[in-house]
Amino acid sequence: MIKSICRSCNDDNLKEVISLGKSPLANNLVDDVKDFDEKNDLYDLSLSFCEKCYNCQLTEVVNPDKMFKNYYYVSSTTKSFRGHFESASEKYINRFNLIPFESLVVDIGSNDGIALIPFKVRGYDVLGIDPAENICKLAEENGVKTICGYFNEDIAEEYESKADLVLASNVFAHSDDLQSMTKNVFKILKTGGTFIIEVQHLLRTIEDGTFDNIYHEHVNYWSLISLKNFFSNLGYNVFDVEEIGTHGGSIRVYINKWKVQNDNVKKLVQKEIDFGLDKIDTYYKFFDLINERKRNLLDVLSKLKSDNRKVIGYGAPAKATTLLNFFNINNSMIEYVIDDNKLKQGKIIPNVNVKIISKEEGYSMKPEYVVIFAWNFYKEIINNNMELLDKGVTFIVPTQKIKMIDKENYNERS
After folding, report:
1. From 97-106, 153-162, 399-408, the region with the lowest mean pLDDT
2. pLDDT digits (tens, 9 = 90+) for 14-26
3. What is the Cα–Cα distance from 318 to 73, expressed in whole angstroms?
4. pLDDT for position 413
5. What are phi and psi of 146, to 5 degrees?
């Protein structure tokens, strides 16, 4: 479905600024190349900009059931992500004076319960909401009460005025009907309760050229100025913000009805304006950066291939699907990619036909070069695979400025 109006302010004068062509759904991995149909399983991947409220959003919206009912991304796969939510829970407990056995914490898009487990072990009531049936089972096995479905008005009525804290970590970009979602959030919050979201920061995405964070699950690409406009139009206040390191650079945004914005909000808004997030030319220049990044990586891989070097990948996150497809890197250039998530092993990244394998199988290939597609975890991946460095393997981190890391120049073992 083509989205012709701004989902934030309803303006109908959107301008297309980025076009990545046709791409498959990023997490819809297939068991066999025959399971993919180019005519029906490729969707336009482009971004449009609203000059009225500075919102940036996908041009084509895909039915969410096609993306979320059976899901392969498991949040707890990486140690750093588990630590991120552990420290976040401690911060929230202390800041909002949550009371064990009384306070309820709700997480929308709760995945395997990673954000709620730290609250549960400390005695707080928790509730997860997630549409992926297979992931909900994992959450229940982790002891996290989870409603399997989309957060909607029925759930909001059942839990009206019961939640002290509502979280939406890395999922506020996923909903096409953000206004209804937000109204339902404040319906389940108690008076004085707080809504906390984490979203990839558009400023960092453009600054670092990390376009591969663009895929169909993310229908919105947020700056603080666009978030402030969105919540203000609904009568809510962004009162605090933090810049955090997840997903290559994100922001944690605090919203409620009664607090006024602090200096953190004012400073980051000014930083975004100085960067040009309110100007359409900034987004056109971003597309130039994307094409530069494409040329840089293809130059490296083409040379390695001409030298008959053995090259495989590491990490099959959603961003890998975007990058491989837009760069036209298929299994003739990178035949395999290692992933530590067992749900993904044996699957195939669609349209480029790159097979996902286990670490053990990848080691047996005796690679000479490993391209880290999960570049936001590259330090953790290298630290967990020092054996490869010791064998002379070079890791390639395909960010805007490509990093080539071997045993001699890697000094971040801790």
Report:
1. 399-408
2. 999 999 999 999 9
3. 8
4. 46
5. -135, 130
Which tokens go with 298? 């293809």
More confident residue, 178 or 298: 298
156-174 pLDDT, tens digit per residue, is 999 999 999 999 988 888 8
pTM of the model: 0.88
Give a three-class secondary structure readout of the chain.
Answer: CECCCCCCCCCCCEEEEEEEEEECCCCCCECCHHHCCCCCCCEEEEEEEECCCCCEEECECCCCHHHHCCCCCCHHHCHHHHHHHHHHHHHHHHHCCCCCCCCEEEEECCCCCCCCHHHHCCCCEEEEEECCHHHHHHHHHCCCCEEECCCCHHHHHHCCCCEEEEEEECCCCCCCCHHHHHHHHHHHEEEEEEEEEEEECHHHHHHHCCHHHCCCCCCEECCHHHHHHHHHHHCCEEEEEEEECHHHCEEEEEEECCCCCCHHHHHHHHHHHHHCCCCHHHHHHHHHHHHHHHHHHHHHHHHHHHCCCCEEEECCCHHHHHHHHHCCCCCCCCCEEECCCCCCCCCEECCCCEEEECHHHHHHCCCCEEEECCHHHHHHHHHCCHHHHHCCCEEEECCCCCEEECCCCCCCCC
pLDDT at residue 64, as a whole number: 82
Domains of the chain by start residue, with CATH: 68-281 (3.40.50.150), 298-405 (3.40.50.720)
CA distance 253 to 197: 5
- For the segment 34-49, what is each residue's pLDDT rounded down to a tens digit? 888 877 789 999 999 9
Average pLDDT over the chain, rounded to an integer: 93
Compute the distance between CA of residue 311 and CA of residue 304 in angstroms, rounded to an integer: 8
Nearest to 89 by CA among 112, 130, 117: 117
Burial of 202 (0-12, 13-18, 19+ CB in 10 A): buried
AA identity, residue 247: H
